[in-house]
Each structure stands twice: as C-alpha cells, then as structure tokens.
Structure prediction request, 267 residues.
Amino acid sequence: MDLDFLIEQVKALALESGEFLRRERLSFDRGKVEQKAAHDYVSYVDKTSERRIVTRLQALLPEAGFVTEEGTASLDGQEYCWVVDPLDGTSNYIHDNAPYCISIALRNRAEILLGVVYECCRDELFWAHKDGAAYMNGKEIHVSDQAVLDQAFIELGFPYNAEAYRDFALKLVDSLYGHVGGLRLMGAAAAEICYVAAGRFDARIEGLIGPWDIAAGHIILKQAGGKMTDFSGNPDCLDAREVFASNGKVHEEILKVLQTHKKILKF
Ligand code: LIP
Prediction:
C-alpha cells in the first residue's frame, strides 16, 4: 500500500471538506440542528460532510470499510477501515466558535496507518503516516519537552454524557487546577490531540469520546514523539472510552491522578 500516495489524496480531501464547512458556516441555519442525545448535537453540515468524504474514500480504496460518527457507512469486518469525523467540534461550529476540524484515519485492524486532521479556523493541516514524521502545514512537528507537572499546559474534554462523567471531571479539575501550568477546555478532541503533537499543549484528557475523535490524532501524536493510553496506562486505547494523550514526559505523573479517581467513572 502506497501510504505517500494515499495521504496526499486524503490531505486534499480534508482541505476541500474544510472549505465546504467554512462556506456552509456563512449561512448556517441553527434551526436545522438535531440532538442525538442530551446536549449531543448534529447538523445537516455534519451529515453532508460525511457523505461527501465517504463517497471520495470509497473511490480511493474500495476494499475498505468505515467507522464514521454519523453512521453514513459501516465496517463489515474488512481488513482496512476508514475512521472519519466529518466535523469534530460540532458544538463550536453551531455557535460559530473555534476550533472545528475534519479527522480522517486509515486503520488496518489494530494499527493506524495514516491520519489527517484539518482545523478550519486556523487553516492548519496536520498529518502523519506510520513510516514518516508528523507535520503541520508542511513543517515537521514534535511534542514539547515539558517534564514538570506544575508547569504543564493541559487540555481537558468534557463529553456530552455529563451523568457518567461529572464526578470524575470535577475530581480531575480539583486535583489539577492550581497544580499545573494551566487548564483549557476547547471542545474538539481531534484538533487538540494534534496540538499536543505540535508541542502547544503537554497533555489532553477525556473519557467517553468516539474512535473517530482519536484515530487520526493517535498516529500524528505517535509520529511526533507523544504517547496515548487509557486511564490505566494501557496503550491499546483506540477502542477505549478513556483517552489520555501527552508528550510522554508528564504521562506517568498524570496517570497517577487518573488512576486515583478512575474508580468513580461510570462507564
Ligand atoms: C466532540 C469532541 C470533544 C468532546 C465533545 C464531542 P463532536 O466531538 O471533539 O472533545 O468533548 O463532547 O464529543 O461531537 O464535536 O464531533
């Protein structure tokens, strides 16, 4: 499989999809937003973006299946599988906030072969495949050297399912707030994992997000020298409900905090 050829096609598709999202944002109709669950929104833009992306990927690699956030296509046990979030940061998009992005990954069973994330507001294209470095807009990226937890800049994600996550989230904030360099909540996991890969943040923590939120970021972070595990430190986390991404240097210290509170997780 020619990953250099494939990733160029996926990069072009992500850029085109980003242009579609920005164009639709100019005339976005908030009256056409649906709720998949409490506070979990989806718009006609998410669904249209996903259909456009799936159609192009089907033509690119007909033998591959799909895992997509809006369920446009499915995985029937194929060896290769595209993992797609057509609009990550939907709530930001609906309210005309940043960031929001497209996330596309190609997976071969347990291994991510390539990943592309395009964040539309800052026009930043992140990519990597398993045999190369990680890049942002053509410039090689690497995780930060920050090894001191008290100075670490950390992103948190609060999933839609507040009932299952609230107690853990509050314990996490209570443990970290005032004891790290800073905490941020930005609402677009795929872009934020790339920010760790680019050294802008030193770690990101969230539970209860989907495989489409993390698959592309996983390979980009790995090729940038970072680390991703679940809240128990298990690196086999692509299908986990807990995702902890870091520069690797603050991973063990933060893992102790996660393991302290993990038992109150309700999932
Ligand atoms: C979002 C994630 C974010 C999480 C939100 C939501 P969506 O994805 O990127 O990290 O906190 O609950 O899951 O729904 O915008 O594609």
Summary: Helices lie at 3-25, 44-60, 90-94, 162-176, 189-197, 211-223, 251-261. The mean pLDDT is 94. The CA atoms of residues 226 and 247 lie 4 Å apart. The chain is about 35% helix and 25% strand.
